[in-house]
Amino acid sequence: MRHFILGALALVLLAGCATPPPPEPGSAASKIVVMGKFKGIAVGAIRVARENGFLTAKVQLSNITSSNQMMYYRFAWLGADGFPVGDEETWRVLNLYANQATFLPAIANLPQAADFRLEVKTP
Predict the structure, then answer these.
(1) What residue stretch is flagged as signal peptide (predicted)?
(2) Going by C-beta distance under 8 Å and a sequence separation of 6 or more, which residues neighbour residue 58?
(3) What is the pTM of this model?
(4) CA-to-CA distance for 90 and 86, rounded, in angstroms?
(5) With bands split at pLDDT 50, 70 and 90, how would you rate the model's confidence at 29?
(6) Looking at the domain 24-121, which fold is it?
C-alpha cells in the first residue's frame, strides 16, 4: 500500500511539471511567438485577408497594466510550405500607454506569402 501511495504522489508531482501542449495549428495562439520576456501585454483578435494579391494581417494588442509598456515586434511571412519567404523584417518598437489597446497592421512583402508569424518581446 505504501508503494502505491508513493507512486501516486510521484505521478501527481510529475504531472505538475508537464509542459502545456502546443497551440492548435491555425489558431491565433499559433501565430504569436514570444522571443524572451513578454509581460503586461495581451494579444487579442487577429484578422487575416488577401488584398490585391498580398496577405494582410491585423493583430490586436492591449496593455493590461496601469503603466506604459514598450514592446518589440516583427512579422515573419511564411509560404504555403510553412517556411519563411522574403527577407527577414527588422524589429520595430511599439509604445503602449496604460490600458491602451491598438491594432498592428501589416502587409506581406511578397505575394507568395500564405501565412504569418508575429514575433514579440518586451525589454
Answers:
(1) 1-20
(2) 46, 47, 103, 104, 105, 106
(3) 0.75
(4) 12
(5) low
(6) Immunoglobulin-like (2.60.40)
Single out the residue of 45, 72, 40 nearest to residue 60, CA to CA.
45
The backbone region for 103, taken as left when phi is positive above 0, alpha when psi lies in -120 to 50, beta otherwise, is: beta
Residue 46 pLDDT greater than 70, yes or no: yes
The beta strands (E) that lie in 1-123 are given as 32-34, 41-51, 54-63, 69-78, 92-96, 101-107, 115-121
Contacts of 40 (CB under 8 A, 6+ apart): 63, 64, 65, 67, 69, 122
Sorted by where each begins, the domain ranges of the chain are: 24-121
Tell me: pLDDT of 75 over 60: yes
Tell me how far apart the alpha carbons of residues 61 and 76 are, in angstroms, rounded to a whole number: 17
Residue at 43: amino acid letter: V
Sheet holding 101-107, edge to edge: 41-51, 54-63, 101-107
CA distance 8 to 64: 39
Q: Identify the pLDDT of residue 30.
A: 78
How would residue 19 be classed by pLDDT, with cut points 50, 70 and 90? very low
